Amino acid sequence: MAESLWLVASVTLLSFFALAQQCQTSAELDDATNSAITSAGRRYFDLAAKGDVAALRQSADATLISDFSPIETLVKDHQQDLAAAQVTTDGDFLLEVDGSAPLAHAEFYCGVFGKNGQTPGSAIFNLDNLPPGKYAVVLLEAASAKAQWKFSLILIQAGADWKLAGAYLKPAQSAGHDADWFTARAREFKAKGQMHNAWWFYLEARSEASPLSFMFTQATDRLYDEFQSLQPADLPASSKPIELATGGNTYQVTAIFPEGVGDDLDLIVKYRVADASDSNHCYQSNVAVIAALVAKYPEIRSAFAAVVARAQDSSGHDYGTLMVVKDIK
User: Fold this and answer.
1) Domains of the chain: total
2) Alpha helix locations (H) across the chain?
3) Rg for the chain (alpha carbons), in Å?
């Protein structure tokens, strides 16, 4: 009886979402649509690999053109990596938004869902302020002798064409490791009672398990179910900074998260200052924040190669300092 109730609730929920937004996986698309989406994705990858920013801009949706600098920077910074890579398609999705006004929050359920939630071929996409229309998500993998990359595109249909609406690039591994490795380390830290390390390594595992921060799969859902209850209460959240006191000063820490840099895994701490353009003052406060952070969470020493403090102000200035863990007093 409980299972039947779950199925009724599930069908009702998915039917409600289907009224405003729909999603099809590549396996569900007709050959012509799937081919058009895949071809467009490959074409934009080729332009990025050639460093042809002008052609990408000409092929972009008007909304993206108005703020094209992130795409331009992505291409310029990684053109050589992409040029040396062989590309394969890892999946396509067709997203449709009905109505006459943008959706404040669109949630797409793609593929087959079972009584326990997602299945290996399913996905959920969460996107905000999405105008009505047809969108495609194209997932590509770019592999070379030096590295592997996940290159993901958002396209929007304009007549018979698919315009570029977004592009994302991330390494297939972080610090030389994949999601399974970070998951195993998170479990080890949990077993040792090092809950902060466990949480940070879980965040990295979850990031590695999906090519996009707004895409959720069976793998990311399972990680969420396993680790979400372990989130330490003394870490900052997106809208809830924590106070870090040191040397008579109190700093508002807004974020602490891991980041792969080459073969190293560093811990990044962001905090607020009045003026981050004052490099001399920010260097001193960065060093103080790093020392105070390691003193507060000494387990950092066993998990990370370095700690990076980034002082940020309301004007958008940012000043960073890196300290190798073994040199932190």
Assistant:
1) 3
2) 2-20, 31-50, 53-58, 62-65, 69-83, 179-191, 195-208, 218-227, 279-296
3) 22
Residues 316 and 190 in one domain: no
- Let me know whether 44 and 192 are in one domain: no
Say yes or no: 222 and 133 in one domain. Answer: no
β-strands 133-143, 123-130: how paired? Answer: unpaired
* Alpha carbons 181 and 270: distance in angstroms, whole number: 26
CA 269, CA 273: separation in Å to the nearest integer?
13
Q: What is the pTM for the complete model shown?
A: 0.86
Distance, CA of 318 to CA of 277 (rounded, Å): 7
SS3 287: helix
Residue in the block written with tokens 């359920």:
109
Q: What distance in Å separates the CA atoms of residue 188 and residue 285, rounded to the nearest whole number?
A: 33
Question: What are the tens digits of pLDDT across the range 135-192?
Answer: 999 999 999 888 899 999 999 999 999 999 999 999 999 999 999 999 999 999 999 9
Give residue 275's domain range.
242-327
pLDDT tens sequence across 296-307? 999 999 999 999
* Residue 20 banded pLDDT, cuts 50, 70, 90: low
Residue 47's identity, in one-letter code, is: L
Q: Tell whether the model's pLDDT for residue 17 goes beyond 80.
A: no
219 and 97 in a common domain: no
